[in-house]
Structure formats: structure tokens, C-alpha cells
Amino acid sequence: MEYNIEDDYKLGIQYLQKNIPDVVDAYHELTGLCFEEGQISKKHKELMALGISLSHRDENCVRYHVTEALHKGASEQEIWETVNVAIAMSGGMIVSQSAHWVKDTINGHQVKQ
After folding, report:
1. Residues 13, 38, 44, CA angle at the centre, nearest 5°?
2. Is the pTM of this model over 0.85?
3. What region holds the Carboxymuconolactone decarboxylase-like domain (predicted)?
4. Which of 13, 64, 81, 102 to pair with 4, CA 20 to 30 A apart?
């Protein structure tokens, strides 16, 4: 069986929900509020989150925010421009991550459509 980081993450969240439900619920409420439409669109918030996720080397969040940005109408070019800004801010580690995590997630999204 092939390892799937998204499934592993979901199982981990279920485990946390069982053991610390108040904290997990509060976290989900907070992030939900932070990503609501406002002066900055949901799409642009996802792109910002992607750049931050790349800078923090958080594979789960990179894959999640690429997918969410695509679902919220971001083009591949907008995603790659976000990668460009993250590279400018965080250097070579972003090149390495983007070569795998962003590319693979975009390609996986295209296969599902």
C-alpha cells in the first residue's frame, strides 16, 4: 500500500479530535474565521498561505493550500508566481519543495478532473 500524506494527516487530526476536542474545535473555528472572504479574497488568502507553508517547509499545508487555491479559482500561473515570491523570500529550499510538492499536487488535481 502506498503512503498517502493527506490520509495520514486526516487520521492524525481524527486522533487529536478524540483526545483534545476543545483545542481542535477552537483551531478549526480560528482558521475558518481567518480564511473568510473579506477585503482580501479567499483565493488570495490561500495563495498567501501557500507562500508561508513553503517557507515553513510544511508539506501537508503546501499540498492543502495548492488544492484550495485551485478550488477557489487560482490559475497555475498564480500559484507559480506565489512560488516565485516565496523563493525570493526564502531562497533555495523553496525551489526544492516546489519541484515536488507543488508540481505533484497540481498534476494530481488535473488527473481528478
Report:
1. 70
2. no
3. 21-104
4. 81
Radius of gyration of the chain (CA): 15
Sign of the torsion formed by the C-alpha atoms of 59, 57, 13 and 29: negative
| Cβ–Cβ < 8 Å for 63, 101 | yes
What is the rounded CA–CA span in Å between residue 60 and residue 58? Answer: 6
Nearest partner of 48 among 29, 70, 65, 71, judged by Cα: 65
C-alpha cell, 64: 492543502
pLDDT mean for each 10 residues of the chain (113 residues):
75 94 96 97 98 93 94 98 92 80 87 74
CA-to-CA dists, residue 92 to 14, 28, 75, 79, angstroms: 34, 32, 23, 17
C-alpha cell at 72: 477557489
